[in-house]
Design brief:
The protein is mainly α. The protein has one domain. It is built from seven helices and two strands. Helix 2 crosses helix 5 and helix 6 packs across helix 7. The longest helix has 16 residues. It is elongated and about 100 Å long.
């Protein structure tokens, strides 16, 4: 009986002195694309509101008509060569695909661009306030590479 008590006390003291192991589960970060947020920031900078050209054309990014934008679902063109999409959702989807392709280096003018460089090509005439507005909405610097937004 005395041996049991001594062993109990010995185990109790060893457990009190022994450092506790903290179990930390390392979870890899979840990557969340910012393409939709980027598209929304462009929509804002393009002046989308009821009655605006981008509103009337269901074209929140004011994409110009090309064979590429036709492949994204443009169903027509206005007098200034801006795409007309059948619905807002199709226009937003086209803008998101355009941004995705640009960030994936699939569109030659935008290969390896920073956000500022992208904007200077995309938003004519070039306007640093446009780039700064998009960067602010995304919480990033204008100097980041657009591939980071994927």
């Amino acid at each position: 009986m005395v041996n049991k008590i001594i062993n109990f006390i010995k185990n109790f003291i060893e457990n009190m002195i022994k450092p506790k192991e903290n179990i930390v589960q390392i979870v890899p970060p979840v990557h969340i694309s910012r393409i939709s947020a980027w598209a929304s920031a462009i929509q804002h900078e393009e002046g989308y509101f009821p009655g605006s050209r981008s509103f009337r054309n269901n074209n929140p990014g004011n994409l110009k008509l090309t064979d590429y934008t036709k492949s994204l679902g443009a169903s027509g063109v206005d007098k200034n060569n801006f795409c007309i999409f059948p619905t807002f959702d199709k226009g937003m989807s086209a803008l998101c695909q355009f941004l995705t392709d640009a960030a994936n280096n699939k569109l030659k003018p935008y290969r390896n661009c920073s956000l500022l460089q992208f904007t200077k090509i995309y938003a004519l005439p070039p306007n640093d306030n446009y780039a700064n507005g998009v960067a602010l909405a995304l919480g990033v610097s204008v100097d980041i590479k657009i591939k980071i937004l994927l």
